Amino acid sequence: MSALTFPPLRATDPAVFGRVAVLLGGSSSEREVSLDSGRNVLQALQSRGVDAFAVDGIPALARALAAGGVDRVFNILHGHNGGGEDGIVQGLMAAFGVPYTGSDVLGSALSMDKIRTKQVWLSLGLPTPQYRKVTAQNVHANAAELGLPVVVKPANEGSSVGISRVTDDAGLDEAVALAARYDGQLLMEQMVVGDELTVAILGDVALPSIRIVPKGQWYDYNAKYIAEDTQYLCPGLDGADEEEIRRIALAAFRAAGCRGWGRVDVMRDRTSGRFFLLEVNTAPGMTSHSLVPKAAAQAGIGFEELVWRVLEQTLEASHA
């Protein structure tokens, strides 16, 4: 397996960043995770001498930008509808000409919509499970076309919010009712039975994969953020398989118009060994349970350096 190489740090003086707003919290369904992530990011930046301060949510950021005194933004808002992964806050920051971490308007909006992301991937020949848009009226017909088992989920949520894995026809209506509690279209896709993996992206480098082994049957919200018995194996694969999952993840990230940093979730079918792309996260979690810091540590990058490297990307040309 080829060794990972990272460019040297662009800056060593924290003063080069000016005043940095760490955008956290917000009003999405992932608020609590974002608050946790944001506290960790803020502490890491301040420990390295960066003049960083917390801003909770998009309205507060708008006020801070209008008042001046914000030189750049570290966006760690998760989700949409008041989160920071749907392109709205990116448009706000671009309008003020303030550099920010992560993907721009297009990459954020596209990757937040799982249906349109899958359409892009399929058009480029990238592997992703077959899917259907579903409603309460067509759910049974679509399940018959795809074949059970299937996964039903909101097209615009993250952190396993609103997801159901359905193995028989009787569970379909309940799954649609759960997913319909959230805004936007509903997505049904063929369920891939096998290993759940994720690949973090930092700049132009795909970090070592992580294979996720929950104590229970599924890697759900509880296993992601609460349980202490989930195993994370990093690297998750070896040899040619590890090279291939990194290649596919980086291609998927770029195809979705994403940049800077993020995370690509992948399934590997237990029978065929094939990889299937699930989604891109453009502002991944940075909590004690989060996966990007684990992958970075495996590559020799500690949490504080990881946060610094993400912030450094705002020293490049503006997203605008």
From TrEMBL:
Q: Which gene encodes it?
A: ddl
Its required cofactor(s), as named, are: Mn(2+); Mg(2+)
Query: ATP-grasp domain location, by residue?
Result: 118-312
Question: Which protein are we looking at?
Answer: D-alanine--D-alanine ligase
The pathway it acts in is:
Cell wall biogenesis; peptidoglycan biosynthesis
Keywords assigned? ATP-binding, Cell shape, Cell wall biogenesis/degradation, Cytoplasm, Ligase, Nucleotide-binding, Peptidoglycan synthesis
* Nucleotide-binding recorded as keyword: yes
What is this protein for, i.e. what is its function?
Cell wall formation.
NCBIfam families from the entry? D_ala_D_alaTIGR, PRK01372.1
As for family, the record states:
Belongs to the D-alanine--D-alanine ligase family.
Keyword Ligase recorded: yes
Organism lineage reads as: Bacteria, Pseudomonadati, Pseudomonadota, Gammaproteobacteria, Lysobacterales
Catalytic reaction equation(s): 2 D-alanine + ATP = D-alanyl-D-alanine + ADP + phosphate + H(+)
Looking at the UniProt entry, the stretches that span the membrane are none
From which domain of life does this come? Bacteria
E.C. number: 6.3.2.4
Q: Which InterPro entries match?
A: ATP-grasp, ATP_grasp_subdomain_1, D-Ala_lig_Van_CS, D_ala_D_ala, Dala_Dala_lig_C, PreATP-grasp_dom_sf
**An example Gene Ontology molecular-function term:** ligase activity
Subcellular localization, as worded in the UniProt entry? Cytoplasm
